Amino acid sequence: MTRDSTTRLENRDRQRILSSPVAHAFVRIVTQRRGISETEAEQAYLDYLNRTQPADNGRRREIA
Length: 64
Prior knowledge:
single chain; 64 residues
């Protein structure tokens, strides 16, 4: 499932984001390990950057 926010990125913004060394490494590793296309790996990276909920940093949440 793709997010609307990643489809709204302008082409130059997408190119700028995907040109970082971190993005290149992510795409390379994901294509090798998951066996998906480069385009799918790029979309996964953009989805990760545009996630709507913050990542759980290992902090324990108290249950009421």
